[in-house]
């Protein structure tokens, strides 16, 4: 086996590990990020995985993801473009395997995150890596994965998440607390989005009724400057 083929086979193995972690930890779940009086809801869609790798492929996004998670991705099915060379992809893949860290550890929400080619309305970062996100159907989803870039400096604003909650996609309320800052309190207007048994504080005797995520999550109500139609991510996780 020549050196080039060996490198490509190694990359395929890393993509497989990342896809399996993505499926195990993220797909089919929704996440609620609370920061101050604001919140956003996040989905990790299967169609987004391919683009996050930085690779090019003869496969479409769905088949690429299916092949990767089922250990069927071949080194003959992937290649590179000048904008995303081998060395960059090699740096991205270990971070892609750790993407679930953005759902259960300290994370910073970036507002108007600027890159050389686009401004993302929202980004998430743990400093080691950052995702820029697009908005569709009430949720933000990752569109780009960047490793140790300058997103914190190029964003209009940055604020740490106070709480992160999770649920299975389709459930009415978030029922698992994944991260919290102990000194923070959940805004009263968001309590109806949360199952009582996952709250860290006593629920006030009077809480607002019939508040939808679109009414309470002010950031997620804004349109992303990059439209979802360009992503082809119509399917929701199952």
Describe this entry's structure for a reader:
- The chain contains 6 helices and 11 strands.
- The longest helix is centred in the N-terminal third of the chain and has 23 residues, at 3-25.
- It is 24% helix and 27% strand.
- Helix 1 (3-25) packs across helix 3 (61-69) and helix 1 (3-25) packs parallel to helix 4.
- Strand 1 (29-35) and strand 2 (38-43) form a beta hairpin.
- It is globular, with a radius of gyration of 18 Å.
- With 238 residues, the protein is of the alpha+beta class.
- The chain has one domain.
Task: Please give the structural blueprint.
Layout: H1 3-25, E1 29-35, E2 38-43, H2 49-53, E3 56-57, H3 61-69, E4 78-79, H4 86-97, E5 108-114, E6 119-125, E7 129-136, E8 139-147, H5 151-154, E9 155-160, E10 163-168, E11 176-180, H6 213-216
Antiparallel strand pairs: 1-2, 1-10, 3-4, 5-6, 5-9, 6-7, 7-8, 10-11
Helix pairs in contact: 1-3, 1-4
């Amino acid at each position: 086996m020549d050196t080039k083929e060996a490198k490509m086979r190694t990359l395929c193995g890393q993509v497989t590990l990342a896809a399996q972690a993505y499926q195990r930890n993220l797909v089919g779940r929704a996440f609620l990020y609370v920061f101050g009086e604001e919140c956003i809801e996040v989905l990790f869609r299967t169609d987004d995985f391919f683009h996050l790798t930085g690779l090019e492929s003869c496969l479409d996004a769905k088949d690429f993801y299916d092949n990767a998670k089922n250990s069927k991705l071949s080194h003959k099915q992937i290649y590179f473009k000048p904008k995303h060379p081998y060395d960059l992809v090699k740096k991205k893949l270990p971070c892609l395997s750790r993407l679930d860290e953005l759902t259960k550890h300290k994370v910073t929400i970036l507002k108007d995150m600027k890159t050389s080619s686009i401004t993302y309305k929202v980004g998430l970062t743990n400093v080691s890596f950052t995702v820029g996100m697009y908005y569709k159907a009430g949720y933000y989803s990752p569109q780009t994965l960047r490793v140790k870039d300058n997103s914190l400096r190029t964003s209009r604003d940055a604020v740490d998440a106070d709480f992160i909650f999770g649920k299975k996609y389709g459930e009415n309320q978030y029922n698992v607390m994944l991260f919290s800052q102990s000194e923070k309190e959940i805004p009263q207007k968001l309590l109806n989005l949360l199952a009582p048994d996952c709250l860290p504080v006593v629920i006030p005797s009077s809480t607002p009724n019939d508040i939808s995520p679109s009414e309470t999550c002010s950031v997620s109500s804004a349109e992303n400057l990059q439209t979802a139609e360009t992503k082809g991510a119509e399917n929701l996780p199952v």
